[in-house]
Amino acid sequence: MMSETTIDKKKHRLTWRLSELRLGRAAVILVPMLWLAAFFFIPFLVVFKISLAEAVIAIPPYSPLLQWDSSSAYLTFKINFGNYLYLFESRFYLDAYLSSLKIAAISTFFALLIGFPIAYLIARSGPTKRIILLALVILPFWTSFLLRVYAWMVLLRKDGLVNDVLMATGLIDQPLQILQTEFAVYLGIVYTYLPFMILPLYTSLEKMDLNLIDAAQDLGAKPYQSFFLVTLPLAKAGIIAGCLLVFIPAVGEYVIPALLGGSDTLMIGRVLWDEFFQNRDWPMASAVAVMMLIVLVGPIMYVRNSNKEVE
Amino acid sequence: MSAFPNPSAVQTKSVPTWRQQDAKPFVQIEQITKQFGQFTAVNSVSLDIYRNELFCLLGGSGSGKSTLLRMLAGFEEPTSGRILIDGVDMTGIPPWERPVNMMFQSYALFPHLSVEANVAFGLKREGIKSPEVNRRVSEILDMVQLGHLAKRKPHMLSGGQRQRVALARALVKRPKLLLLDEPLGALDKKLREETQFELMRLQDELGITFVVVTHDQEEAMTLATRIGVMNNGEIVQTAEPHEVYEYPKSRFVAEFIGNVNLFDGVVVEDERDSVSIQSPDLDALLQVDHGISCAPNQEVSVAIRPEKIYISREPVDIEVNGAMGIISDVAYMGSQSVFKVRLASGKELRITQPNVSREMGSRLTWEDNVYLSWDPDSCVVLMS
C-alpha cells in the first residue's frame, strides 16, 4: 500500500504542474492582452472621459472632470451627459449614423456580389493560375490607400479617363458628374474593401470538397440548386467574415466620402472629423466616436458567435 | 481465396441471366471511349450488365474503372460510344436526370445537413411531398440501422455510420442503377466483411442493379455476380468470380487476382485434350489437361495457384508436373502457411497449405528439402 504522504506528494506535484501550465498559458495570453490594453482599452477610456467633459476654449479644449479648488478646499467632480443627450436630440447625428449604416450595408452587398464570383473563380483555378489571381487581389495593398483614392479622383473627374472614354464612344455628349456623388463613394468603398471580401470567401470555397457538387447533382439537383443548397451554405462562414470585414470599417470610413463624396454625402466619420477639427468640440467628437463603437459592437459579437458555431 | 460463398451461387439456383443466350441486358455499354487530351482513360469498352446483377469493375489505379463509373453517372460524357440504361440512350442526359445514383468513395455527405436531411435531399429534388419524404427517409434509415442517429450531423458519426448514410442517401431514390465507388475502402477489415454481407442483403431486398468499382480483388470476389477486370482503359476479362480466379485469360488477370506461380515455356506436344510444355525453369515437363490451339514451339505461360501445389518431404514422382526444392521462406498466417520454395533453376515458387494440425513439430520449416507436385487440371495455359 502506498503511504499517504507519497500520494499527497504526487498530488501536490500534479497540482503544481497544472498551475505551472496555467501560468504558462496566462503568460502567452498576457502579451496580446497588454497590447490591447495599451493601444485599445486605455485610449478608449481617454476618449470616453473626454466625451463626458465640456468643450472650452483652452488647451486642451475640454474641461477636466475633477477639479480641486485649493482656496475653498472643494473637490468638484463634474460629468456632462449633454453630449450624449444631444446625439439623440439632434436629427443630424441620427441621420449621419443611419446614412453610414446604409452606405456600409449597400457597399457590403455589392462587394459580396462582385467578390463571390471572383473568389469562386480563384478557388476553382489550377494551382499556378490561383497564385497569380491571388497576387492580383493582394497587389494593390502595396501602394498607399490614399494614393489609390486620389487616382480614382483623377479617373472620375469631368475631364478624367472615364468621362473621356464615354464621350469618345458617343454614349454621352456631356461629361457626367461622377465625382462628389454618392455613387463615387460606393465605388470607392467597394473598390477599397473588395480584397477583404474575396480572401475569406476564397478560403471557405477552396476548402470545399468538389465531390459534394457531384453528389448534389447525382441526387437530382440542377446546377443552380446545387449552388444554393450546397455551395452557398458551405461558404457561410466566409460570407459572414467577409461581410463584417467590409461593413465594420466602411461604417466609420472618413477618407473615401471626404475625397470622393459630395457635400451631401453624410457619413459619421466625416461628422466626427468636422466636430474635431472644424468645431474643435472634442467632447462632442468623442461622444460620436463612443456611440459609433457601441453601434458596431452588435455585428462584432454576432461574428464571434457565428464563428463558434461553425467550429 | 475467398472464404465466403459466391452470392450468385447461393441466391439463385436457376441459370443466372448473364449465362442465358437471349437475355436482354439492362445496362448496355457500347464501344465507349473517353479521352482527356492525349490520354485515353477508357478505350473502346463494351459491356452488358443484367438486371439485379452486382457487377464489379476491378482494376488498379489508372485502369479507367472510375472514369467508366463517372460516365455511367453522367459526370463525364464519353468521347465516343454510348450507354443505354433500361433501353434508354443516356447520351447528353445530365446527372440530375439519370435514373442512377452513386455512393461516393469519400461518401460526400453534406456537412451542413443532418443525417435525415442528407437522405431527404434527393427526394425533395423530385418534388415529393414532405410526409412521403419523411416516411421514406425513416424507412431507409431503419433499413441501414441508423434511425436513432437521424438528427446528427455527419461529423458526429463514425466511418461505418457515414458509409451507411451514404448508402441510404443513394438508395432512397430507388434508382434503376446504383453505382458504388470503392464502397468499403475506408472501413477496417472487420467492418468491411460485415458491410459486404449487408450490401448483398440490401441488393437482394431492393432488387436494384449494382455496379461496384474496386481495386480490392477480395472485395470483388465476395460481392460480385460477375467481375470485369480492367487494365489500361480496357476490360481484359469479364466472368464470374470463380472463373476469373480459376481460368484467367491472361497473365495480367492471373497475377492481378490472387497469387500465382508462372512458368514461361514452349509447347512441345500438342494433343487434342492435353498439351506438354517445356520450361527452362523446370526439369520436369508441364502437362496440362486442356488442349489449346497453337503453333508448335509457341511460347506460352503456365499458371498454377499456390494452394494447388502439393508439398511434402517424402519423395514423389516428379517427372511430370513436379519439382524438388528447398524451403527458403515460411510465413505462418493462422489458417494457412505460405512457403517459398527455391528450385534448382533458381526459380521461387509460392505454395500455401492449410494448417490442419496444431502441432508445430512435424511442420515444414526453413531449409527443408521438399517435393512439389500438382495435377494436370490445376494448370492454366496463358497465351498472352
Automatic annotation (TrEMBL), chain A:
<feature type="transmembrane region" description="Helical">
    <location>
        <begin position="131"/>
        <end position="153"/>
    </location>
</feature>
<dbReference type="InterPro" id="IPR035906">
    <property type="entry name" value="MetI-like_sf"/>
</dbReference>
<feature type="transmembrane region" description="Helical">
    <location>
        <begin position="183"/>
        <end position="205"/>
    </location>
</feature>
<feature type="transmembrane region" description="Helical">
    <location>
        <begin position="285"/>
        <end position="303"/>
    </location>
</feature>
<feature type="transmembrane region" description="Helical">
    <location>
        <begin position="103"/>
        <end position="122"/>
    </location>
</feature>
<dbReference type="InterPro" id="IPR000515">
    <property type="entry name" value="MetI-like"/>
</dbReference>
<keyword id="KW-0812">Transmembrane</keyword>
<feature type="transmembrane region" description="Helical">
    <location>
        <begin position="21"/>
        <end position="46"/>
    </location>
</feature>
<keyword id="KW-0813">Transport</keyword>
<dbReference type="GO" id="GO:0055085">
    <property type="term" value="P:transmembrane transport"/>
</dbReference>
<protein>
    <submittedName>
        <fullName>ABC transporter permease subunit</fullName>
    </submittedName>
</protein>
<keyword id="KW-1003">Cell membrane</keyword>
<comment type="similarity">
    <text>Belongs to the binding-protein-dependent transport system permease family. CysTW subfamily.</text>
</comment>
<keyword id="KW-0472">Membrane</keyword>
<feature type="domain" description="ABC transmembrane type-1">
    <location>
        <begin position="97"/>
        <end position="303"/>
    </location>
</feature>
<dbReference type="GO" id="GO:0005886">
    <property type="term" value="C:plasma membrane"/>
</dbReference>
<dbReference type="Pfam" id="PF00528">
    <property type="entry name" value="BPD_transp_1"/>
</dbReference>
<feature type="transmembrane region" description="Helical">
    <location>
        <begin position="226"/>
        <end position="248"/>
    </location>
</feature>
<keyword id="KW-1133">Transmembrane helix</keyword>
TrEMBL record, chain B:
<dbReference type="InterPro" id="IPR008995">
    <property type="entry name" value="Mo/tungstate-bd_C_term_dom"/>
</dbReference>
<feature type="domain" description="ABC transporter">
    <location>
        <begin position="27"/>
        <end position="257"/>
    </location>
</feature>
<comment type="subunit">
    <text>The complex is composed of two ATP-binding proteins (PotA), two transmembrane proteins (PotB and PotC) and a solute-binding protein (PotD).</text>
</comment>
<dbReference type="GO" id="GO:0015847">
    <property type="term" value="P:putrescine transport"/>
</dbReference>
<keyword id="KW-0472">Membrane</keyword>
<dbReference type="InterPro" id="IPR027417">
    <property type="entry name" value="P-loop_NTPase"/>
</dbReference>
<dbReference type="GO" id="GO:0005524">
    <property type="term" value="F:ATP binding"/>
</dbReference>
<keyword id="KW-1003">Cell membrane</keyword>
<comment type="function">
    <text>Part of the ABC transporter complex PotABCD involved in spermidine/putrescine import. Responsible for energy coupling to the transport system.</text>
</comment>
<protein>
    <recommendedName>
        <fullName>Spermidine/putrescine import ATP-binding protein PotA</fullName>
        <ecNumber>7.6.2.11</ecNumber>
    </recommendedName>
</protein>
<dbReference type="InterPro" id="IPR005893">
    <property type="entry name" value="PotA-like"/>
</dbReference>
<keyword id="KW-0547">Nucleotide-binding</keyword>
<dbReference type="InterPro" id="IPR003593">
    <property type="entry name" value="AAA+_ATPase"/>
</dbReference>
<comment type="similarity">
    <text>Belongs to the ABC transporter superfamily. Spermidine/putrescine importer (TC 3.A.1.11.1) family.</text>
</comment>
<keyword id="KW-0067">ATP-binding</keyword>
<dbReference type="InterPro" id="IPR050093">
    <property type="entry name" value="ABC_SmlMolc_Importer"/>
</dbReference>
<dbReference type="Pfam" id="PF08402">
    <property type="entry name" value="TOBE_2"/>
</dbReference>
<dbReference type="InterPro" id="IPR003439">
    <property type="entry name" value="ABC_transporter-like_ATP-bd"/>
</dbReference>
<dbReference type="Pfam" id="PF00005">
    <property type="entry name" value="ABC_tran"/>
</dbReference>
<dbReference type="GO" id="GO:0016887">
    <property type="term" value="F:ATP hydrolysis activity"/>
</dbReference>
<dbReference type="InterPro" id="IPR017871">
    <property type="entry name" value="ABC_transporter-like_CS"/>
</dbReference>
<keyword id="KW-0813">Transport</keyword>
